[in-house]
């Protein structure tokens, strides 16, 4: 009786003191990581596009499939020409496009981004110059028109 009475239910006390395994997942760190990733992508997504600001004309054309990174030629509303983000002269246009395209330059897709207010003559001249120097895969880039606006 002395052994049982002094413990006061010692066996039960030890079981209660032992911690049970955690059976639920703590999602707080997961949510924190996902929010940080969301913010990073929201901030970096606009920076991925080409840096020359042009207002593209609206069309109902479908998207073009791209296998590799194309060369971007931009024409601003004042007629100035850019390859990537650097301005180029009319004479240097084919040379700079060839440098930007790298090897197999003639097979590379060229994206022509012309401001909607750019003169048609400037766009046509750039396309004709690139076509005459051997670039055959020329694509005009536009914004898609909204269904309500069409």
Summed up, what is this model?
It contains 5 helices and 7 strands.
Helix content: 25-40%
Number of helices: 5
Distance between the termini: 94 Å
Identify the strand order in the major beta sheet.
4-3-2-5-6
Strand content: 15-25%
Instruction: Report the sheet with the most strands, covering strand number, pairing sense and barrel closure.
Output: 5 strands, mixed
Alpha-carbon Rg, integer: 32 Å
Can you give the mean pLDDT?
Answer: 75
H-E string: HHHEEEEHEHEE
**Alpha-beta content class:** alpha/beta
Query: Residue ranges: pLDDT <50 for 5 or more in a row?
Result: none
Shape: elongated
Q: State the total count of DSSP E strands.
A: 7
Structure, described:
With 150 residues, the chain is α/β, with parallel strands linked by helices. It is 38% helix and 16% strand. The chain is built from 5 helices and 7 strands. It has helices spanning 2-7, 10-17, 28-48, 93-101, 120-132, and strands spanning 58-59, 71-75, 81-83, 86-88, 110-114, 138-141, 143-144. The strands form 2 sheets. Strands 4-3-2-5-6 form a 5-stranded mixed β-sheet, covered by helices on one side. The longest helix is centred in the N-terminal third of the chain and has 21 residues, at 28-48. It is elongated, with a radius of gyration of 32 Å. The mean pLDDT is 75.
Task: Produce the secondary structure layout.
Blueprint: H1 2-7, H2 10-17, H3 28-48, E1 58-59, E2 71-75, E3 81-83, E4 86-88, H4 93-101, E5 110-114, H5 120-132, E6 138-141, E7 143-144
Parallel strand pairs: 1-7, 2-5, 5-6
Antiparallel strand pairs: 2-3, 3-4
């Amino acid at each position: 009786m002395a052994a049982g009475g002094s413990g006061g239910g010692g066996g039960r006390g030890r079981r209660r003191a032992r911690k049970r395994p955690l059976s639920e997942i703590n999602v707080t760190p997961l949510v924190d990581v996902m929010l940080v990733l969301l913010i990073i992508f929201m901030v970096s997504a606009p920076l991925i596009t080409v840096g020359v600001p042009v207002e593209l004309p609206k069309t109902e054309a479908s998207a073009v499939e791209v296998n590799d990174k194309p060369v971007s030629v931009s024409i601003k509303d004042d007629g100035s020409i850019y390859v990537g983000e650097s301005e180029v002269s009319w004479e240097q246009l084919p040379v700079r496009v060839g440098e930007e395209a790298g090897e197999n330059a003639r097979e590379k897709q060229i994206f022509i981004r012309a401001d909607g207010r750019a003169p048609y003559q400037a766009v046509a001249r750039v396309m004709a110059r690139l076509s005459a120097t051997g670039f055959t895969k020329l694509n005009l880039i536009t914004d898609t028109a909204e269904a309500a606006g069409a």
